Amino acid sequence: MSRFLFRCLLAAVTATGTLTAISSPALAHGGPTAAIVDTARGHGNVFSLTFDDGPNPPDTLALLKVLRKHHVKAVFCLVGDQVKAHPEVVRRIAAEGHTLCNHSLHHDDLSALTPAQIRADLAETSKLIHQAVPWAHIAYFRAPYGAWGQSPQVAADLGMQPLGWRFDIEDWVPPGTDVLAQRIRDRITPGAVALMHDGGGDRSQTVAAVDQIIPELRAQGWRFTLPQRRG
Ligand SMILES: [Zn+2]
């Protein structure tokens, strides 16, 4: 065990001991803040993959297979309506060790809503996720269209860290697998959180581009990590 890892473990034990007295689950997890995180964990050539608008079989299932093959963990930002339609896919995502993110109930623009309205939307979405996977921890919230409004503070109050992104591969209208792979090569920067989609349409090109790019980037020294836990 490296000295660094030992210090981390020691810090975790100490933190757990200290935090048991605090009742808030949010604080016990280090406390989400209203700051929008768009940075991958770790130093150097680290990079986070995040996938929005699912679950969306068969593309989500194909993506899970690709991520498993390459031993990469990602974040899935789930839409409540999709969770309701495909709870078994949410179970698969969680069972394979990926991280869950609340992406609102109907993929509405939340920017004009009051905090109470936003809270109702987010809470209902999390309830649907928990109906699918009772043990799931929903670490993040991402606002549809990046239209945050007052949602970052509401999300933090509900124990979820707002999750942004540094670049979008713009896979809304699929331009071809090679174009998507090239966008990732062109836009990747150290510490970037990347926004991609496994839902909202046919995402087979996104899945194929991810399959192509992971070994290539890894060979260049890139590491795939999750986004930072808090802002
Ligand atoms: Zn979305």
From TrEMBL:
| This protein's name | Oligosaccharide deacetylase
Instruction: Please give the GO cellular component terms listed in this UniProt entry.
Output: membrane
| Keywords from the UniProt entry | Hydrolase, Metal-binding, Signal
**Boundaries of each NodB homology domain copy?**
45-225
Q: Where is the signal peptide?
A: 1-28
MF term (GO), any: metal ion binding
Which species? Paractinoplanes tereljensis
GO BP field: carbohydrate metabolic process
